[in-house]
Amino acid sequence: MRPKRQVTAVLLMAAFAAVGCTKRDTPTTKATESQDSAQAKPVAAVSELPPLAGTDEEGFVKDTTPKVKGPASFADGEAAYKAKNYAEATTIFEDYTTQKPGNAWGHFMLGLSAWKAGDLDKSQKAFETALTIDPDHLKTLVNLSRVLIEKKQYDEAINTLTKAGDIEPNSTDVHRLLGRVYHAQGKTDEAIDAYTRAIELDDKDAWSMNNLGLVLLERKRAEEALPFFTKAVELKKDVPAFHNNLGMALEHTGRFGAAETAYANAVTADPAYDKAKQNLARVEAVKKGPVTPVTVEDTKTASK
Length: 304
Hints:
Order of helices and strands: HHHHHHHHHHHHHHHH
Strand content: under 5%
Helix content: 55-70%
Number of helices: 16
Shape: globular
Largest sheet: none
Distance between the termini: 41 Å
């Protein structure tokens, strides 16, 4: 296992330093934040990891997907999938796999479509069928592991990812997803190692940076988490969760003015992002006076 101190020794850290994640904010916010910190109450709990489905972490269908020649229904299904009509794509690929049961790509696309449509059981079955046709189909193994993680079948997910790693040891996806499994199992040292390896393989893997930052934040290592969140935001400015998580790290280290900006950016990116709205309101209240304690009734309302 890689020593903990290597987390901050990843080569990309030199690049992170240029982003401005120091213990000091800009001159315009430093004095304000120094005064704010004296009034601050404990910050909120760490933001949860975004769900596997429904984020751009996945990159399900890329230009490398071969163009399968066959009935028009494959092209129709692919078009429906790319248009995010996942239920329609599922129906089309069910028909296609009935016509072409030996085509692994048809079952692969059925698995993706069913997963995005919310049918995890159908998705798992389709991916497993694809693997009976092509046991070394890397993309199927990787995406099957995502379904297994969502189903909390962590041991099965690790077995699947281990096989994928045997096929492609330098797959960033494999190491990132191993990090997610270990994180879900509470094995934070292993999760840190897996995410660090993913970043070593791809210094533009924003999701591994975000996920590693979350693990470090949960371990009360917010100062170490800051460069990873900052770089994730720099790489993908349109992901609201990245701005929110950066705000959490800034708030945990007492940088309330900078945290306010990060939360505001999260709300700008997604006006319906309730967690970011709550976080923004909390740090704004710090500037006005003591934070109003959260009551049991507030908690019940927030949990709806």
